[in-house]
Protein: Solute carrier family 28 member 3
Amino acid sequence: MELNIAEKGNQEQGEDNEAFESQVCEIFEYSLDLRLKDIIHINSKFVSGFVAMVIAACVLNFHQAVGLLVISLVTMFFLVWDWMMERYSDWVWEALAPIRVALTRNWFWIRWIIYMLLLVAVVCWLALDTAQRGTRQLVSFFGLLLFIFLMLLFSKHPFRVRHWCWRTLLCGTGLQFIFGLLILRTTSGLSALKWLGKQAEGIDCGFSAGDAYIGFLSSVISILYYVGFMPWLICKIGFIMQVTMGTSATESMAAAGNIFLGNTDSPLLIRPYIRELTVSEIHAVMTGGFASISGTILGAFISFGVEASHLLTASLMSAPASLAIAKMFWPEKEASIKIFHHDLKMDKGQNVLEAASQGASRAVGLVANIIVNLIAFLALLAFFDAVLSWLGGMLDCPQLSFSLICSYVFMPLSFMMGVSWEDSFIVAELIGIKTFLNEFVAYQKLSELIKRRKAGGPEYVNHVKQYISVHSETIATYALCGFSNFAALGMSIGGLSAMAPDRRSDISSCGRRALIAGSVSCFMTACIAGDSLDSVIQHECFCICSVTVYEPWNVTAGEGFSQSSLQGCCTLIPPKHFNCSWAL
Structure:
C-alpha cells in the first residue's frame, strides 16, 4: 500500500515537472517570437529610413549621390541573391544539371574552341587597340608574355603543367585583364576608382599623422569583420576564383583574404586545414601573401602620398594573378582534400566595441613595426651605400651604391613592364629596394619622386634624373604593391609553421619559390596596368613646353622648369589633350 502511494506521488510529481517544463518552453518560444518580431520591426524601420535617405539624396543632388546609389543597389542585389540561393539552391542546381552534364561530356572540344577564341581576341586586341596607342603598351603586353614564359621555363615540375594548369593561368590572367579594362579603360570604372581613392585620401586628410590613419583603418576592418561584411566579401571573391580558375577552396579563400588582410593574417582563414594542404597549395597560399598588401598597410602608403586608387586596384588584380602564377610555378601532383567555401568559418569578437578595440590594439604594433622598419632599413641602406662607395673608390668608381646595383640588375624587368628607357633605371632601383629591404622604404622613395614632379622642379640636376613620368609612377605603384621581400619571407614561414609545426619542412621549401612567384604576380599586374593605361597620362606639360615654347616663360630642354611655367603651359595648350591636373 505504501509503495503504491509512493509510486502515485512520483507519477504526480513527474506530471507536474512536465507541465512546468512545457510552460517554460511556451514562455521561451513566446519571448523568442517577440524578440524576432522586434528585430524584424527595427530592421524594417532601418531599411525604410535608409531607402528614404537614398531617394532624398538622389533628388537633391543626383551627381553627388551616385556613389551611394550604386553601393546600395549592389548590396541589395547580393542580399537578394544570397536569400534566393539559400532557399532555392537545390532547385537551381537540379535545373542546371543537364547543362553541366553536356559541358562535361564535350569539354575537350569546348576547351579548345575557347582557347582559339581567346587567341583571336588577343590578336584583335593587339592590332586594333594596343598597337594604335603606342609602343609602351606593346612592350607591357610582351612583358606579360615574357613573365609567363619564364615561370613555365623554371617551373618546379614543367612536364606536369597540364590542361587544368592552363585553365588556371588563362582564367587568372583573364580576370586581371577584365579588372584592368573595367577599372582603367572605362569611364564608369575610372569614375568609381577615382571616387574610392578620393574617399580614402579624404579620410587620410582628417588625421594629422599617418599612424592615426592606420589605427582608424585597422578598427574599421575589425568592425566590418565583426558585422560579417568582410567574411561575406572574402567568401564571394574566393568562390568566384574557385569556380573560374579551378583552384581549391582553401587556396582561393586565402588569395581572396590577402586583398584585405596581411600575409600572416590571411592563413588564419584556413587554419584548421593547413595541415592537410598539399605542397602546391602551401606554395599558392604563400604566393598570395607576397603578391598583395593588407588594408591597414594601405593607409601607410596613402599617407606617403601614393595614389590610393591605384593601390586599391593593384590589390584586387594581384589576387587571381598569384593563383595563376603559383599553380604554374609549382604544379599540383597530389590529391587535394575536398573542402567547399561554405565550410570555412571565421572567428570574430563578442561585440562591435570589442572588435574596434582589437583593431586599434593591433594597429599599435603595426605602427611601431612600420616606424622601426623605416628607421632600421634606411640606416642599413645608408650603411650599404657607404661601404659600396668606399669599395668603389678603390676601383675609381666612388658613385657605386646599393641603389645603383639594383638599377642595373632590375632594369630589364622594369623596362618590360612598359616603363620608358630613361625612367627604367629609377623604377628598377625601387624594385630592388622593395625586394631586398621592404616595401615601406620603396614607397617612401617613390613618394619623394612624386613630390619632386608635382613641385615642378628641374628634371635633371647634374645629369641625374630627379623624377619620373606619371606613366612610370603608375607602373611602379603596381609593381611595388606586395609583401614580396626577404623580411616578409621570414614572417610568412614563421607564421605558417606556428599553425602547422609538422609541415615546417614543406613550408620552408616553398619559401623562395613563393617569393619569386609573388614578385612576378606584382610585375604581371604592372604589365596589365601599363597596357591598359590611357596614353593621356604619358604627356606632361613641361615636356611639350621644352620643345615648342620658349617665350615668355623661358623654358628650354634639359633646364629648370618653374611651377609658373607649367601653369602657363597648361593654360596655353588645351587641357583635354594633356594631364594638367597636377600642374594647375
User: Anything to note?
Assistant: The first strand starts at residue 460 and ends at 461. Residues 1-60 form one domain.
